[in-house]
Amino acid sequence: MFLTLAACDRGGETYPQTTFRPVSEFGAKLNAVFYNTFWWTIAIMILVIVLVVYAAFRFREQPAAPPPRQIHGNTKLELTWTLVPALIVVIISVPTIRTIFETQRRPPADALVVEVIGHQWWWEFRYPQYQLTTANLMYIPTGRTISLVMQSADVIHSFWIPKIGGKRDVNPLPRRREGGAPAHPNYITFVANRPGHYLGQCAEFCGEAHALMRMSSMAVTPTEFDAWVQRMRGAQGGAQPQPAPSAQAVIGQMPAPTGAGNPYRTVMSDSLMQAEGRRIFLGGACVACHAIAGTTARGTIGPNLTLFGSRPQLGAGTLANTRDNLIRWIKDPAAVKPGALMPGTLRGTAGVGPTSLTDAEVRAVAAYLLSLK
Ligand code: CUA
Prior knowledge:
Elements: H1 2-8, H2 10-14, H3 25-58, H4 75-103, E1 112-119, E2 122-127, E3 132-135, E4 137-141, E5 145-152, E6 157-159, E7 168-170, E8 186-191, E9 196-201, E10 214-220, H5 222-234, H6 247-253, H7 263-267, H8 270-283, E11 313-314, E12 319-320, H9 323-331, H10 333-336, H11 359-370
Parallel strand pairs: 1-5, 4-10
Antiparallel strand pairs: 1-2, 2-3, 5-8, 6-7, 9-10, 11-12
The structure holds dinuclear copper ion.
């Protein structure tokens, strides 16, 4: 599905993070402000260059030529070069301020609210109207107003998906006190008008893995969005534990030992491997931080992993979501993303010990996570 969506967006193939091909009316409005300012500054630049070149040539030093006529206190000229720039400032500022107010309007009642929470170094997306939570990949329907309500769990980050528009800081909010002033999150309100997969990243330096704090938005048709919501809600955590196959069935599939690798690895069926991974995941340290809808995993410190297998990337856009990359990630996240808070199999992170999973267990957990679609 990602490939077909990407194919719809030919500009996106070459410049996935351009602001010049906005896919929302919000981005288009920002572009209009940009171009208005841009063309005025270009015109001024050309005018200044022409006058400088003309003056340098016309009044160059020549042998025997008298000094040029000196002018002081030309009221007409001084008024002109004061009023014309003032007029240009007005021409630029009026549409700019109008756009600021337009894009800060209250969203309509039927808007889809997405709570955006920046974490070191990943993004959490909550859908309070659907009681869903996901991470790093924000699903949105086209044609419906999206209201992003944005804050941070730790330091200042900046949410920026260039094709949608914006680049807005997400700030840590003081906890709302009883009777105190309400906290003020930041907002972006927009309508995506084209399906596609739009890439973005954190745009405010926020620590050592800032450059690896990416996010993306999957804009789909309203029907596809409803289907995604249903899948998120109905997610039962992927493969269910299954009865082990009979010994005869397993022996029948055993390859002749080749001496390379573990022959049993190929013997274990996918579903068996996934069930084993599920058991390890739900019974181990993973659930302290991660949640998967429909399971007992309810951790909220790390990214929610519901439908993880359908995400194109892992580690907040750090790697393509393939089996090998996932295994690499589970074994040693900090080697992939410096400062990652998730512990590896052999080394822990500040305050968290290593998971001590064996290679076979890591493979099983990876198989389980990739089966969550
Ligand atoms: Cu988060 Cu930079």
